[in-house]
Amino acid sequence: MIILASASPRRKELLSKLVNDFQIIPADIDETPYALEKPDEYVVRMAREKAEAVASQHDLSHRAIVIASDTSVVLGESILGKPTDFEHAKSMLRALSGRKHQVMTSLCVCNAGLNRVATSNVISDVEFREISDLEIEHYWNTGEPADKAGAYAIQGLGGMFVKHISGSFSAVVGLPVYEVTQLLAEFGVSPLKEKIRE
């Protein structure tokens, strides 16, 4: 049994390309960064805490494997979370306009007993073109940026702002496919064998 510790439709879609059957149990944790916590430390901690919360708070089969992930848009040393309103999104997109930033997507895979825990952090560099205030307003009105880290979705309309990406596209979307495959293999799961059963 595989469990995705996330309600994200993007993560669900990406994982469905690798395994046929899995359950979704979103993790309910405090996602507030610690004082002076570095972005890379924060995203790894978030993925691990999500996985551990689901593994420990639910009555799972001992054979269950939990997958959790966390994505942060990072500009300098600042973590850009999800916007609270239009002005917040506008300030983030203005800051990203014409600049390079990093997208950090961490991954944690563990078994239900928590005696096997594996983590990974995928860092991708993303460069935006210049974005006008009018474009930002129109983009906000599409509804897409409202629940996205950094106020944009690379797989959606937000992709039109991306001039260049160096790294993992699937990680920027929310789940690093290569790393998921590698970690699942450590737990005895082969996506290729999974898909043969279809």
From TrEMBL:
Which Gene3D superfamilies has this protein been placed in? Answer: 3.90.950.10
| EC number per UniProt | 3.6.1.9
Cofactor dependence is on: a divalent metal cation
An annotated GO BP: nucleotide metabolic process
Q: Which GO terms describe its cellular component?
A: cytoplasm
Class of enzymatic activity (EC top level)? hydrolase
Classification via Pfam families: Maf
Q: Which SUPFAM superfamilies match?
A: ITPase-like
Domain of life, per UniProt, equals Bacteria
The catalysed reaction is: dTTP + H2O = dTMP + diphosphate + H(+); UTP + H2O = UMP + diphosphate + H(+)
Record bears the keyword Ribosomal protein: no
Site positions per UniProt: Important for substrate specificity: 10, 71, 155
Q: Which PANTHER family match?
A: BIFUNCTIONAL DTTP/UTP PYROPHOSPHATASE/METHYLTRANSFERASE PROTEIN-RELATED, BIFUNCTIONAL DTTP_UTP PYROPHOSPHATASE_METHYLTRANSFERASE PROTEIN-RELATED
The job of this chain, per UniProt, is described as: Nucleoside triphosphate pyrophosphatase that hydrolyzes dTTP and UTP. May have a dual role in cell division arrest and in preventing the incorporation of modified nucleotides into cellular nucleic acids.
Q: What is this protein called?
A: dTTP/UTP pyrophosphatase
Taxonomic lineage per UniProt? Bacteria, Pseudomonadati, Pseudomonadota, Gammaproteobacteria, Oceanospirillales
What gene does this protein come from? yhdE
